[in-house]
Amino acid sequence: MSTLLDLDRAHVWHPYAPMPGTSTPYVVESASGVRLRLAEPVAGHRELIDGMSSWWAAIHGYRHPVLDEAVRDQLGRMSHVMFGGLTHEPAVRLAAKLVEITPEPLRHVFLADSGSVAVEVAIKMCLQYWQSIGRPEKRRLLTWRGGYHGDTFHPMSVCDPEGGMHQLWGRVLPRQLFAAEPPAGFDAGPDEAYAAQLSALIAEHADELAAVIVEPVVQGAGGMRFHSPGYLRLLRELCDRHGVLLIFDEIATGFGRTGELFAADHAGISPDVLCLGKALTGGYLTMAATLCTAKVADGISQGELPVLAHGPTFMGNPLAAAVANASIDLLLRQDWRTEVKRIEAGLTEGLAEVAHQEGVADVRVLGAIGVVQLDHPVDVRAATEAAAREGVWLRPFRDLLYTMPPFITSDADLARITTAVAAAAVAG
């Protein structure tokens, strides 16, 4: 094992980590259900309950027989074929399925490689739309602070410019417009003063705005903040009034995580462009999707360049599309809403006492998302080790300890997760 870790330290550049690494990762040799089996015990545990759904993607857990079979079946047919000039059943059925389950009037589906690329495609769609219909001056984006949309260049430009991870690139990124963070609280209802500020900002810059892009209801990696669905309805109204497109980034929130199938459903509205990823394939393979309305697609088709100028090599990968179809079918065949409510109740009960711990600034729960915010930056190593001693895998960041467990997590395992969060809060 030491040889493997030595090779890892020498050659593997982990996400958001220095090179060479300064911490020793846990080596996972297999996974099943909600458990990660380690090559060597950590804090006396050979298995850790995954409280993160592998960065929010593995909603059905690991080695699910339905998803395993979907991959095996597709592998026996073909693992990949280029999507330019060719098509295949898994991708076509996936696109039709996504159109069926997402809010009207989203009609067209571009299959991408990852969430960040899906956001790139969404932005490109909006910029090309305005260029194609003769409004090239509409090339800026507006969002609110506290957001996170990915690590490639255009998505970085709409991440929080001060509190986020991408400050280093501020001088080279496109300069976008930022409203203040939406007031916190899913149940708080819209704040009139904030709504007025948002309305004035969009009205002032409407002539140069191509689109507004936000994470609906839950801001993920930018701070795990929840806001009222009322702000989404306001954005829809303002974008319609001022001729601006609206993009929802549901890469983290899609497929039931917030208690609705899509976070937009909390507001009862639809964007012009929708980004999906993470749980799309149940965490099995990398794939994302950007959906748009017929209006957006028709506008692009009218332009001097009447095609969307984007084409990933692995676009529409048959293996990923097949397991995505199986994952969506598996989710919708179950009473997923009751399961998410069960997890929400377990997280609410289990984290209630954590709110009274010293150093805890806030505790919040929505759907299958539980967040503990500290009043200081978390000691990631100490908090991770404290959770591992409880037999749970957590990955804190900034001042946040949070969990997004798989939907199959039992009540007993959920209790262990909340106990681990409480222990991490003390240690971190």
From TrEMBL:
- What Enzyme Commission number(s) does the record list for this chain? 2.6.1.62
The UniProt entry, under SUPFAM superfamilies, shows: PLP-dependent transferases
Q: In which pathway does it act?
A: Cofactor biosynthesis; biotin biosynthesis; 7,8-diaminononanoate from 8-amino-7-oxononanoate (SAM route): step 1/1
Keyword terms, alphabetized: Aminotransferase, Biotin biosynthesis, Cytoplasm, Pyridoxal phosphate, S-adenosyl-L-methionine, Transferase
The protein's required cofactors? pyridoxal 5'-phosphate
Instruction: Indicate which residues the UniProt annotation says bind substrate.
Output: 55, 148, 278, 311, 395
**Binding residues for pyridoxal 5'-phosphate:** 115-116, 249, 312-313
Family membership, please give it. Belongs to the class-III pyridoxal-phosphate-dependent aminotransferase family. BioA subfamily.
Protein name, as recorded: Adenosylmethionine-8-amino-7-oxononanoate aminotransferase
Q: Which gene encodes it?
A: bioA
